Amino acid sequence: MGSIFGQLFRISTFGESHGGGVGVVIDGCPPQLPISAEEIQLELDRRRPGQSKITTPRKETDTCEILSGVFQGKTTGTPITILVPNKDTRPQDYSEMATTYRPSHADATYDAKYGFRNWQGGGRSSARETIGRVAAGAIAQKILREVANVEIVGYVKRIKDLEAPVDTDTVTREAVESNIVRCPHGECAQQMIDLIEQIRREKDSIGGVVECVVRNVPRGLGEPVFDKLEADLARGIMSLPASKGFEIGSGFSGTLLRGSEHNDPFYPDEEGNIRTRSNYSGGVQGGISNGENIILRAAFKPTSTIGKSQETVTSSGEATELAAKGRHDPCVLPRAVPMVEAMVALVLCDHLLRDRAQCHLFEQEGE
Amino acid sequence: MGSIFGQLFRISTFGESHGGGVGVVIDGCPPQLPISAEEIQLELDRRRPGQSKITTPRKETDTCEILSGVFQGKTTGTPITILVPNKDTRPQDYSEMATTYRPSHADATYDAKYGFRNWQGGGRSSARETIGRVAAGAIAQKILREVANVEIVGYVKRIKDLEAPVDTDTVTREAVESNIVRCPHGECAQQMIDLIEQIRREKDSIGGVVECVVRNVPRGLGEPVFDKLEADLARGIMSLPASKGFEIGSGFSGTLLRGSEHNDPFYPDEEGNIRTRSNYSGGVQGGISNGENIILRAAFKPTSTIGKSQETVTSSGEATELAAKGRHDPCVLPRAVPMVEAMVALVLCDHLLRDRAQCHLFEQEGE
Amino acid sequence: MGSIFGQLFRISTFGESHGGGVGVVIDGCPPQLPISAEEIQLELDRRRPGQSKITTPRKETDTCEILSGVFQGKTTGTPITILVPNKDTRPQDYSEMATTYRPSHADATYDAKYGFRNWQGGGRSSARETIGRVAAGAIAQKILREVANVEIVGYVKRIKDLEAPVDTDTVTREAVESNIVRCPHGECAQQMIDLIEQIRREKDSIGGVVECVVRNVPRGLGEPVFDKLEADLARGIMSLPASKGFEIGSGFSGTLLRGSEHNDPFYPDEEGNIRTRSNYSGGVQGGISNGENIILRAAFKPTSTIGKSQETVTSSGEATELAAKGRHDPCVLPRAVPMVEAMVALVLCDHLLRDRAQCHLFEQEGE
Amino acid sequence: MGSIFGQLFRISTFGESHGGGVGVVIDGCPPQLPISAEEIQLELDRRRPGQSKITTPRKETDTCEILSGVFQGKTTGTPITILVPNKDTRPQDYSEMATTYRPSHADATYDAKYGFRNWQGGGRSSARETIGRVAAGAIAQKILREVANVEIVGYVKRIKDLEAPVDTDTVTREAVESNIVRCPHGECAQQMIDLIEQIRREKDSIGGVVECVVRNVPRGLGEPVFDKLEADLARGIMSLPASKGFEIGSGFSGTLLRGSEHNDPFYPDEEGNIRTRSNYSGGVQGGISNGENIILRAAFKPTSTIGKSQETVTSSGEATELAAKGRHDPCVLPRAVPMVEAMVALVLCDHLLRDRAQCHLFEQEGE
């Protein structure tokens, strides 16, 4: 029951690493939005394996097909189905994993919960599942751009202890896409790439932090008390594979400040809008967007599947060792960037529709 | 539409700081659970204002009344309504806040979203709203204890930069409740109390980190891919007032390790259970509980309402200054502990029911 | 988990016949709607017991109190809680029902499901539960009137075999309220009243049909394929106590016609609107409102609690007889009218918000 | 937002008459259920066009493919995707319908709501959409059989005014499938077939009533007050194309009886179970199944697309006439039988899981 996300812009993802394919059904997309498979493909290409020397060598073009919900180049308001068939599957590579649990992977817990699992390539716990999210996120991003010129820019902020200084006001997707690690600071990016390559040679893995800024967010998104914007963003981010932490605005470091330092002073700008001088809040106050940039960070742990030998058990509970074969990323961060952006877009788009429904009813009618 | 939480154990909270009262309706509670207002009151007393010299002096007994859903001391399976009337209300204390926005508080965003707000005592954005959560959490905790002896222990891990060493395997609620700051390490607790008192005298505020450990968690809770256990925990925690960050297991610091260090090696214990030697995962792998302790942390910012004078604007957009009157906590952490425990209990109880529904259907019938 | 209704205008009802009270929490109500307890009370008075000689003599004023969500006479957008305390409770009247199941009542099934029930006055299965629906429906009706001048008029169409001719284009609530049976045809009404009184004297009960017409419905409400307008209306109506059937437009009798007779011919009216010459569709085509009057009918069975002696069993499974004491209606129809109207209003209001969210997004922004 | 159905056994259907295909994603299916495409195909074959001389001649094999969620012949507990590609599409047949609205069809309302529609073959409003329901229903039926030997038998009860006597205790699917109109009474069936053929020759259409009996229903399914079993069954049935009415048990005719006639007397059977002597309740009391047969009826109007010339308008609002081309059924009833059974199965399966979650928690643990 956990594969549906959103209240109004509602997505249902499906598919496993191996099998017929992976994809998504989007229910509740506004009609008359121009959209093409090509636009969606652009985002999928940023997520796909084999895109560079620092990602998994699995060769998937991840070519998407729109099965329903789009007619004459526009959404019809009915469910949009996007399918990406699996191509480069090698179930034999994973035969050992049928019976030997990878430490810190989902193998053992899936067996514990379901009594059974599709062990080929990680099955449903494979990062291939995120294809459906990224495809749906591409449509959500387009809606946000059309309605309010919302810009979502994610990037690698830190790999292990290599942290890049990034200006959230000015960072662009072009800068992010200018290198294969998706860090907009060129010098740091090169160091990160070198580190990832070294770690790969050592058959090990590393993690880091993705930061994401959203500009031009409409005021008023988020629904207290449980569906606060940061709560739904946290849920979206923490549902991504390998995520271990979430922060908005000042996050954990904000707890080191006093209130008088941390509070964002209000001032009226020249057009009479209420703005804040600092942005420790990260664009959200009381669970509702305040029009400032939303800034969030997600911690991704080092990939659990590694080539080094590790202590583990078999599915029948016997102690053994495992040095994983198969193809995997030494560091998920570069490919996590479009996933983070997708989840952020899905949450914001859903809340945009929700806000329009509840809080703009009477004004609409007055026009 | 944001005041309902949970899929099967579903709560609907209501009420504002000032007005008829606050409370919760719980829909989907299993029948035949023995429960009394006294048991619920124990948790509410840990949350209530005025409980110690380091909390807000607002005098509320927060006495709860069960209006429905319990008959002859047991739940009936129908909606349970718990009401806490408001008593010590002083709307006049907040009259200035009707027109002057507190920096980093919800005043301005509520007005932006709803065009209007109940400004008395913060209205719906007041921490009084969490009464409903804590009351429902008391019932959820009881279910978890009855079914699987689940223990949830939250505590103050850090106040500003004062961090306490705590052993998650052995920490008890008794130790937590042995002092007013709810830090189980006595020496650190005293330093924290001193710091909070000093900050209060300076009309300022501070934040910190609450950590929570859950022991005896059944294996198999959590529903990939969106309703992963850590995703729903993150949503629950990040929906609490003043929260800015969430971590599970190793969290952000786990990103500094290599996979070979971070992976939790599996081993079979003496009873043949699959256990892990370390617990960087924090009790959750692939979004599903693995039977190890769940360990999570929540960052709470310094209280935004402070007595110091700050730059701000009026609701009509004019620059002004505000030194807040009214009653407020210099540090929310001590009272946040039962709130965190409540959200954790609500998420776990909901997932317990969900897991029983989906993954134990055939075995039930076979018995 | 079954006491929550609606997707965006979402209500959560609570309470039993005996106990602290009954009521509703409404989550998602648009802000800034003027509303008073008095307006809600008007609808509750139409539902309350003891209102006339043909209803149950239980004496309840059903006086409502707004506990939250309304400030300075307007909705705030936060949860609205409406509570009606129970007053005239006589648990002793029902002591026999603690152990003896009323035939065709909910006594036995509640025990089978929950293993236990509040048997006082029917507990949760009492029609008192509908107080929350009617209170919420009053607010939904006001929204519909404010936004689109929607008129909802329900009335008793048939009592047993006494059927009244009613013109759905012109029937008014005033005509409906002009007599105690709520049938707008005066002559039929008197016959119905006489029949109900006779049946009451015979310690028996009767049923009938409520018809409801909705005028000025905006085009475009309803969400194929599962949340078609008639599907959600059917669910709402069939969730009312004692309902056994639902029809929209031509209903069951429409199955006797040929397509060429049943299809509603389209024509353009003078203002260029697309209208239909007949209305067998009942205002809904393909699950979406077409702007014509919505016409639906609900069948209500004869009240199951009767004074006549009947064959039944005890809760321990022994054969016995029961002649029910306690207070009950010989015919639920007159009081079912406001319940039907409330459910219709709740469904339409929810779909109004849903339609605004999905299908008016781009136009809003273009304006 | 209306293409998702169910709370725990949750289906999301997708697809249009013309385009990539139609299908369903099932989220929340219990793991370890043996299932094959062949089993699903059996149900799809009962629904598919071209199956007999009295259905539409569109030639679709409706061959299904399981894309995900099944591994080694068993469900994995992850989303099950079933896809049926469209084959025999003839968009040109429908070109007239791009601009001319079929009376009483969904053409005009889709345009009114979405501003736009896929007009090829009816797009999303085509009965092809029900393929996803029938496929998911096949799995739901299997679960119900495995867990409680539940039998669901639907059949044509009436075509226009030709009504068949059917014994709900003994009717079998074999009898239903013994003729092409799916009426288990052979003589009536032949009359119905003759009538449908005659109506087809006259380029007209007819409707009727499908009845459905469910045997061996577990006691305790259904969740008052809104998710009563009959309420969710009504919603499911009324969401089917062409449905105009729903009844459970005595339905509308039950309103002609007195309570003393209509109440179902209880008696203890030889095994000590509580049974009822009559079954006017239709297997549901107080919204909860009582273990007796569930009996329900659905009214289906005459097909709206007919070859006879009718008064209508164009999408630009001009008066015109339309004699529909394209392929359509003169009577939907024979093909509606598996659709009704599917919706009934989906509702019961969902409520089975919900009941297990809420009402069997403590007993499970006690075992």
Main features:
homotetramer; 367 residues; alpha+beta; Chorismate synthase, AroC fold; five-stranded antiparallel β-sheet; 18 strands; flavoprotein (chains A, B, C, D); lyase (chains A, B, C, D)
Task: Summarize the model shown.
With 367 residues, chain A is α+β, with helices and mostly antiparallel strands.
Query: What kind of assembly state do the chains in view correspond to?
Result: homotetramer
Low-confidence stretches of chain A: none
- How would a crystallographer describe the biggest sheet of chain A? 5 strands, antiparallel
The largest chain-to-chain contact, stated as pair and per-chain residue counts, equals: C-D, 113 and 113 residues
Give the number of domains of chain A.
1
**Basic shape of chain A:** globular
Summing up helix and strand content along with how strands pair, one would put the structural category of chain A as alpha+beta
Helix-strand pattern of chain A, N to C? EEEHEEEEHHEEHHEHEHEEEEEEEHH
CATH class of chain A, named Alpha Beta
Major β-sheet strand ordering of chain A:
1-2-3-7-4
Subunit structure (chains A, B, C, D): Homotetramer.
EC number (chains A, B, C, D): 4.2.3.5
Family (chains A, B, C, D): Belongs to the chorismate synthase family.
Protein name (chains A, B, C, D): Chorismate synthase
List strands and helices in order, with pairings:
The structure is a homotetramer of 367-residue chains.
Chain A (H helix, E strand, L loop, with lengths): L3 E2 L4 E6 L6 E6 L9 H11 L17 E4 L1 E2 L2 E2 L4 E5 L22 H8 L15 H19 L2 E9 L2 E2 L9 H5 L8 H16 L6 E8 L13 H10 L4 E6 L10 H4 L3 E3 L5 E3 L7 E2 L2 E2 L4 E7 L9 E4 L5 E4 L10 H27 L1 H6 L1
Antiparallel strand pairs in A: 1-2, 2-3, 3-7, 4-7, 5-6, 8-9, 8-10, 10-16, 11-16, 12-13, 14-15, 17-18
Helix pairs in contact in A: 1-3, 1-8, 3-8, 6-8
